[in-house]
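My hope is that you will study the protein record below before we discuss the fold together.
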Amino acid sequence: MESHSEVVAWLRSVFRTGVTIPLQFRLTQLSALLSLMEDNEAQIVDALRKDLGKPKFEAVLSEIDMVRNDICYAINNLKTWMTPEYVGTNLATKFDDCFIRREPFGVVLIIGAWNYPLQLILLPLVGAIAAGNCAVLKPSEISQATEQLLADLIPKYLSKECYVVMCGGAEETKKLLQNKFDHIFYTGSQSVARGILRAAADHLTPVTLELGGKSPCLIYGGVDIKTAAKRLVWAKYFNCGQSCVAPDYLLCDAETRDALLPAIREALEGFYGPDPQRCQDMGRIVTDKHWSHVMELLGRSKGRVVIGGESTREDKYIAPTVVVDIDETDALMQEEIFGPVLPIIALETVEEAIDFVNARESPLALYVFSDVPQLVTKVLENTRSGGFCSNDGIVHMTLPTLPFGGVGASGMGCYHGRWSFDTFSHKRGCMFRGWALERIGALRYPPYSDTNLSWLRWATTTKKSSCSVM
């Protein structure tokens, strides 16, 4: 087996041949990736069921179709994305061609996560291929069935010369990071991200980090309680709560909380029946270790469990759970829960809720449920988060036309659709000059004079628009 350094060196040599640059090569590889998704849907669903107990409906919706849609979007738009973007000029450059050319970085590293083990490795790969890069893929070793499936399928469908899957655990990743890459794309925890940043710094490698955090949901100003409960329950307990954009906690006033709890119970029974453990539509916690961590947080909480709370270690099952009567110091509020446990904190005004959110690290997503448009706008304008969605959860990240990414502690950089292409592209500013207007050009040559400086400033200065904001 070749060493990591040998694999990276080989990919770099392949990239330098220019094989990944032509439009037709990129389209061919994207079409092959689409065939991988379409030919192996049953195997993908089976792997995700083994890893996370993920029902077919969720697997297709959040993993298969999201990747498929992004591939098709890239295929449909790639020619336009690759076209040079011409920019404005001044008098001194009037006859020059000035444009932005988007070029591949070279050899990139994509490190996936276990909670959406297919989507979170292949969506960045779509961008890397579209931008013309070679890539090393490092799937999560925690989702073992999906990791193995990717290792088997990628070489069968994509160019073995340009795209390599490398499996292994944390030590394998550390060794991989000792090599110089031209871009690193990582999805996962903040603690691991710090190590990746340190490793990237040794090579001055740019990094995209897709992390997470405690994404809040605010409910104020009146809502349709039953519909709000259904949307909240779906977003929170989808994938057994193991989504980086799941509502992590809920802020509302006491009256709304008391009206919402029976609606949540009704929604849960409607979705998963009287015994969610026996429902095929309820997923499982990924490993015993992760199950223990969620249960440990729940055990240390001083709050009151009003819905759920049941669990079975052997089945890695935790019932959809709601906890009330907690404050900001509670164990459930100290870190991202990443499981089917929803804490509710009662704050009487939306202003208090905004202050609560702003006192913490910027989350990956922020949700507000309200019938009052002005209230929604107020929350949007007075908070900061990676993404924002009103009156629903998670769905904003499914659109390839919207950027998806964090801010501050929830990540840096973004992707999906055109944004993935740009993430894996260097924006090269270019100017094609001729020999015209040398009379103006000559003004810059020594010997310098105030007269030449005045003429040169006249030819190159950007004038302030007469239009002003009142």
User: Anything to note?
Assistant: The chain has a mean pLDDT of 96. The longest strand covers residues 97-104. DSSP finds 16 helices and 18 strands in the chain.
